[in-house]
């Protein structure tokens, strides 16, 4: 392995939650979390209590390291690129704003996922000037992930942020199981109802923790749910997540339906995947997504929009928008469960325009006849996909629903052990989120200012030299012209 120069770094230390279930997150990979053990067919109460007791005393301090210097090199044996102490092995995936690569920590010998994001991306047609830049978005994601410590939320290990580099590197724990596979090539479900229940429970616990901390994910979907080697599910991708200190305070007070506030106006902007949008996001006046020309043409057709009347279980898109709250995550959770069970989304359309304005806010929920399900599961899906956010089921109620706890030996103990209030309430202030991306901006401004000063100084000297040279050339030309005149005049005289 090539030698790596010493790096300047900062370490951010977090307080530990007191929940026993979290301790499994720091134990060896052969152990399961408390919730996973309870879902196992070979569940052993005595063994579980002994392990939980041991783990509660073994949880180390969580640190996220921020490295301000980045070195590139190549491993002499494999030829793979090295970023500081990490060897890049292969690409795991890519998206609009960046890509994720499998890496290896050459000091610890463990695999990691490295998210590589460009600071600046091309502005898309139709984007607004007040939209967050790509760098601001990634720094907002970093600020949120630094504060998240939960067995069902992916953990950020290190941020490599060199001001002289075009890219920012986020080192995240590697999830060996990858994305959850929920359908085959024929759009048929690939998991059993029991498997869907277990995965659903893990997501509920992670999402409940995020809401308790004042974080709304805004992009819950199967692609953002990753599996460990032990088939434990963790929520990932916080690129469009929203943090509100006020929302965190509301959670502490136990208010599930807070009044709208100016602080949360960012939630009105649509973000995430359209098929998972909640009905309260589908209002024409607040549409901020880019709509293609074909979508607009289809949307303007008479067949795109129905008559003004709608069913009792829908919200008129022309009415007053309900407040945008954490209930949008609950809706997306319901769409995700529907996907697990039926292998398809509950609401689909030919165009995004039609989906946004017609199908999601107006079309009633239907269950396919070819895949029979229990009445209990139908009830849960109907309550998760309730179009009125004020009537939508809460996560606390989800944890008590008969279908969710059907195979748990002790549901009350499970609820007590996984109560998010056992975790210390963490604080991500607006200043922290803002400063996460303004520090580098200030450095860039200083560098640009220095460069501009040097440029002006050089330009000034150049102008002075140009003026001197120009003056010299003018004198030279004048002298040359006068000499020519004298020569012309003296020639005839010489002839005489």
Give your account of this protein's structure.
It catalyses: L-threonyl-[protein] + ATP = O-phospho-L-threonyl-[protein] + ADP + H(+); L-seryl-[protein] + ATP = O-phospho-L-seryl-[protein] + ADP + H(+). ATP binds at residue 115. It is a single chain. The protein has 496 residues and is of the alpha+beta class. It folds into two domains: 1-16 and 61-174, Phosphorylase Kinase, domain 1; 175-431, Transferase(Phosphotransferase), domain 1 (Orthogonal Bundle). It contains 13 helices and 14 strands. β12 (225-227) and β13 form a beta hairpin. The radius of gyration is 30 Å and the shape is globular. Residues 1-61, 286-318, 472-476 and 479-496 have low confidence and may be disordered.
Overall number of strands: 14
User: Strand share of the residues?
Assistant: 5-15%
Q: What structural class should be given to the helix and strand makeup?
A: alpha+beta
Q: What are the segments in which pLDDT stays under 50 over at least 5 consecutive residues?
A: 1-61, 286-318, 472-476, 479-496
Q: How would you describe the shape?
A: globular
Instruction: Calculate the mean pLDDT score and round it.
Output: 73
CATH topology of the largest domain: Transferase(Phosphotransferase), domain 1
Helix share, percent = 25-40%
Strand order of the largest sheet: 1-2-8-9-7-6-5-4-3
Q: What's the CATH class of the largest domain, please?
A: Mainly Alpha
Main sheet?
9 strands, mixed
CATH architecture heading of the largest domain: Orthogonal Bundle
* Rg from Cα: 30 Å
Number of helices: 13
Order of helices and strands: EHHHEEEEEEHEEEHEEEEHHHHHHHH
Number of domains: 2
Tell me the CATH superfamily of the largest domain: Transferase(Phosphotransferase) domain 1
